## 1
Amino acid sequence: MSKRPDTAPLSFSEKVGYGLGDMASNFYLGFFGLFLLYYYTDVYGLAPAAVGTMLLVTKFVDAISDPAMGLIADRTNSRWGKYRPYLLWIAIPYGLTGFVVFFGPELSDTGKLVYAYVTYTAVMLAYTAINVPYSALLAVISPVAEERTKATQFRFVFASAGTLAVAAFATSLTNWLGGGDELLGFRLTMAVFAVLSIVLFWTTFATTRERISPQPHVSSVREDFGALARNFSWLVLVAAGVLVITGLMVRLSSTVFYIKYYMGDDGAVMFFIFDRAAVFLSLASVGQLTGALITPFLAARFEKHLLMLAMNVAHALLLVVCYFVPPDNFALIATLHALGFMTFGATATLLFVMYTDCAEYGEWKTGKRTSGLIVSASLFSIKFGSAVGGALPGFILAAFGFVANEVQTPTAMFGIRLMFNILPAVLMAVGGLCMILYRIDRATLQRIETEMHARRHSEVGDDAVRG
């Protein structure tokens, strides 16, 4: 018999527990976004263009694995629910694969590249296996849209805290644990974040519940994809997400290069134990955290899609201004960077709330709940944007004549400035403008919530009669 959905407010501990899962995710995404390209080129000795190609080629695996994981999760039935058990089962593989990416064995140039392909593919598969269910859990954690928004706020507060931890301590931990050996420092620092990630995902599993119990999944894969393709607002959101995440990752992947080569940072301590890169990245993470915190306040007063449009256009304008700031004005560049990440904190929070809104809309329209598929396809768009955003700087560095650990030519320096400011600005602006086409507004959501509440109560009554 189906259970009547529990509409009670989520407890503080459950919202915290749910948020910790994204902290675990951002230990990896933050570390990869900030340091993976730098690690591969300046530490492990791979060519920038080869790394860019690797980041793109491996996405063909994700194109299959992400939707497949969504289909599997939607069809999972266990005593822990559909999505929660994967947080328990996949946490250790997730931790191990993250560690081996930065293990850095001494191999030939070809061997190093093959090792990068294999280990990066493995960690992305583990990321898919745990993050598709984790993200889909949001759609069933409560039948009330307001409660899902609150859970999403906690999610991105802790996501920002995870990124802040990486930004603030990664370079210091690398220097301290490595004792001057940068490769060893990266290896041991990643081991710390891997262990923490395992513990955090297990905590999420232990503290959350699935409150929506859909009817048994009987539709075919073809029918599920057909329902997804008819969800126009989801298609718009995916397009916007790809563009925004690509822009963000282009900037993130460029940050270490911009600070090291354009701003002339020599790695000296600037404040307490933190070097200039750590301070710069930490301020951005504080900005992102602030953006996540203020999102519910803003979302209660403005339509979510229009708010997302405004935030992305504002971010683009900040990036354009930053392009004209001279490299010795660290304070102004850091301030503009932090303000940009404050707008992104709001954008990221809105993006995932709106994905769950699209899941509700899809069930309302078709009668089929495919939260796992919607979230997995959405997650692929984010991973695809991350891959493209991480790859483009590699190609730009190669095209503009960048040589690792050397004084850069004016042409190479222009390429670094271009990929840090102008290219992300264009992508952010176009991504924001996509939201003009988004159709799910506040009035539609209120109608969906009312009608779905009645429909689920009717299903409970029908099951009781049949029972």
Note: Confidence is low (pLDDT under 50) at residues 463-467.
## 2
Amino acid sequence: MTKVVMYCTEVCPYCVRAEQLLQRKGVTEIEKIRVDLQPELRIAMTEKTGRRTVPQIYIGEHHVGGYDDMAALDRAGKLDQLLTG
């Protein structure tokens, strides 16, 4: 399984939904970067992704985007391919 990194906050419902979708896809480990605990990480996330909202999800080196973007990839049948590399 390809490494998954998710910029998130504790109370973000889209972060929860993203994690649930990934778990349904068999992902057992998600590296979570909590931008609510360290504001400098949100700045780094914004510089890296060009977006301020969470979640921001990386599968391997590929920036997927947020939950809606990942769900769209799943509906298009492309998420599994990213997750398996």
Note: The chain has a mean pLDDT of 97.
